[in-house]
Predict the structure.
Amino acid sequence: MAKRLFLIGMLSALAAAAVWAGDVAQFVNLGFSDDSRYFMFSQFGVQEKSSAPYAELYVVDVPANAFTSQGIRKVTYTKSIEPGNSGQGALFNLIEDALGLKKQFRIDHLLTGRLLYLLVDGGKATDTIEFRDFLASNTYTVNLMQNVTQKGTEVSSTFHIALSIKGKGDSTRSLDIGSPNLSRSGVKSYHVKMIVLAPDGKSLIFVIQKEEQDTRGVNIRYMVETVRIN
């Protein structure tokens, strides 16, 4: 019986791997500056083709919804690592190398904001999300609108977010987030992975999960969009 269960488990794992032939990056919230103006995040993983670890680090100007000058750092190692290794060592090395950025933008790794929404691993992603922040007495409705263009084996897509915030007294504000005319080559779909309220309560950080198509399958990467709400 135990052998049978083991075989079933192995077949299930192989089937899942066949469906998802690519690598999945892990998102890391590295914190805000003391005035919540800047936000630092990273993603890391292991390339599926080469087993090489990689890491990327970004600093975002939250009110501007844009990367800061020289606020992008990336590293990919040529040496492959053993199976089961998450590649987090690449992230640790990159954080050490980016210590100057942390000091320049006064990033505090303890100031990670307040998590308002999270798409758990294995959860079903939807383009419409509604939730309530009971502490601020706000109800949020998020509509992620995306358009995918397929030409042969080439794919590109655009997206933006329509945000509605219903506050006290049924007052409602509508905000448009992102760049609906910016086409991203190789991206086949977008999902909202998490939404974070900045420590000062004046901005939202939308963590967007991207499915990027390549010749071997689909890779998962992340980006962020920010918006001032107060």
